Amino acid sequence: MPTTFKNAVNKYFRARNLKPGTRGEYLTTVAKWQKWNGGVTIERLDKSTIRDFLSWVYDNAVEQGGSNPGRTANKARTHLRAVVSWAWENDLIEVPPRFPNPVPHREVAGRHYLTKSEINALYFATHQMTRPKGWREPMPVGRHWRVALVLFFNYGLDSGTVWGTRPFHEPIRWRHVCWQHSAPTREMKEKSRWGWLLYRRIKTGKTFCRPMNRVVHAHLKSLYREGIHQDDPVFLGSTSRPNVRFRKLCALAEISAKTDVDSGEQQPWVLKDLRKTAATYYDEHMPESSIEILGHTVGGITYRHYAHRAPLAFKAIMTIPQPSAFRSLVRGFENNCPCCRREFNDALQASD
Predict the structure, then answer these.
(1) Of the spans 1-5, 114-118, 345-349, which averages the highest pLDDT?
(2) 327-351 pLDDT, tens per residue?
(3) pLDDT higher for 124 or 138?
(4) Cα 289 to Cα 292: distance, rounded to the nearest angstrom
(5) Per the domain annotation, does 236 fall within a domain?
(6) Same domain (yes/no): 213, 332
(7) Which of 65, 102, 147, 203 has the fewest CB atoms within 10 Å, counting from its CB?
(8) Within its chain, how far is the Cα of 146 from the centroid?
């Protein structure tokens, strides 16, 4: 039987423990959907239909004198995509429709995530990082930071999980990297052709077993060398204050400071913002997947103890669109610029 958008939202409410304010926002989108053309069922949704609806929401907000119609249209897009993704996950629809890109809008509360162009700039700026005092490793320090950026984006890690900046932190070691297709834990029944990564969350102490996609696999392989011990840490090149080095990296990438929500003052970016960046892009790619991937605490007995969310996290990690800079290593451009083939500074220093 065809399912209307209103009925799908009601089923979504019964499956999710949403706050009253969030429910009210969804119901506002339902009212807009019915006012536009409520007869379209979710089984018949396609990209053009969704684009027409979002255009109508935008125009309607302009007619009513809205100060930020683009944000209104994007909020309706988020609600629609969350319900459609849930319907696909629960086999109410066979294939999810493609969604148009978000509408440009004015940032009201300040942006607390890095755009993909800024991530690309950070990635290539690591080639300009100077050799730390006492650095005796055969590979440049920038390579460790490039791989760390890839893992921050794909898993939303804590800085202590990557580098172990405190004595009680457990950093990622080579014994936590599994190159086999089968997962090293019994909880994961899926198989990953690129291997698996195990790590522990600093705040909660929870252990995660996550698949590696092609980009993560290629970057971790670039750090591996013969004679390495399984108890050796994967990442080097940090200090007890990694945010200081990250701010220097932001300066090399010429990334402007972020705006504080409450005071409106400019503040420097910190490594925790990379975790917020991962949550932003995962929810954009597959709504609510960041809850499982980043290990957020959620309410509801059913969700915490009975809902099996591992397949959602597996699918999200293996399919999330990567920043273009991350694919340069996969294409064979580790030491050269992908566009002009110019050799980077750290590659020239290594050759000397």
Answers:
(1) 114-118
(2) 888 887 776 666 666 676 654 455 4
(3) 124
(4) 6
(5) yes
(6) yes
(7) 65
(8) 16
Q: Are 317 and 111 in contact (CB under 8 A)?
A: no
Same domain (yes/no): 73, 160: no
- Comparing 55-59, 92-96, 129-133, 238-242, which segment has the lowest mean pLDDT? 238-242
Please return the burial class of 184, using the count of CB atoms within 10 Å of its CB with bins 0-12, 13-18 and 19+. middle
| pLDDT band at residue 3 using 50, 70 and 90 as cut-offs | confident
Amino acid at 199: Y
Q: How far, CA to CA in Å, does 274 sit from each of 139, 257, 309? A: 24, 14, 23
**Predicted pLDDT of residue 300:** 43
Burial class (CB in 10 A: 0-12, 13-18, 19+), 87: buried
How far apart (Å, rounded) are the C-alpha atoms in residues 152 and 235? 12
Mean pLDDT of the chain: 85
Rg (CA), the chain: 22
Q: What is the pTM of this model?
A: 0.70
Reading the block at residue 122, the tokens are 């950070």
Q: Does 294 share its domain with 240? A: yes
**Do 149 and 80 share a structural domain?**
no
Number of domains in the chain: 2
pLDDT one-digit tens code per residue, 145-165: 999 999 999 999 988 899 987
**Residue 252: its pLDDT value, please?**
94
Same domain, 235 and 317: yes
106 part of a folded domain? no
Enclosing domain of residue 135? 116-351
The pLDDT, as a whole number, for residue 305 is 41
Tell whether 128 and 79 lie within a shared domain. no
